[in-house]
Amino acid sequence: MEENIKGRISVLSSHIMASEKAAALTAVPSDSPTIFDKIINKEIPCNVVYEDDKVLAFKDISPQAPTHILIIPKVKDGLTGLSKAEERHCDILGRLLYTAKLIAKQEGLEDGFRIVINDGPNGCQSVYHLHIHLLGGRQMNWPPG
Ligand code: 5GP
């Protein structure tokens, strides 16, 4: 019975991983508005954990860890992904990382956490509005998949 449940969990998790990857591989890199614009404009709901004039952070809809938060710039300014960064983006990039540290503290991740920025199809990026994943609340593994 226990083996049965373990097997089921393994099948379910591989399905979830496959759909994340499928979403990334079907996403078309572009500077068009994304679902995150709707979140910024409060057109669709999300669970906000932090907000200031430049940055918004909210819980990922498909959490990969007990704590999984997305941290995004409110103004994309061409930053569809990190690979599009230019010198003018240094301030916002630094601010996003510093905000990740503030949120990690706010969320009680004293034992550590992981920051992820997926970029492009090979990096498994599915939403083309730069975002930092803040993951925590469990032991991470290395190397990542
Ligand atoms: P990426 O794969 O581009 O690095 O990450 C995009 C993330 O956005 C995924 O982890 C996905 O679960 C999350 N996501 C996609 N749509 C929504 C949504 O409508 N609401 C929230 N909260 N997260 C979303």
Automatic annotation (TrEMBL):
CDD domains: PKCI_related (cd01276). Residues 35-145 form the HIT domain. InterPro entries: Histidine_triad_CS, Histidine_triad_HIT, HIT-like, HIT-like_sf. A motif (Histidine triad motif) lies at residues 129-133. The active site is at H131. One of its GO terms (molecular function) is adenylylsulfatase activity. PANTHER family: HISTIDINE TRIAD HIT PROTEIN (PTHR23089). This is HIT domain-containing protein. The lineage of its organism: Eukaryota, Viridiplantae, Streptophyta, Embryophyta, Tracheophyta.
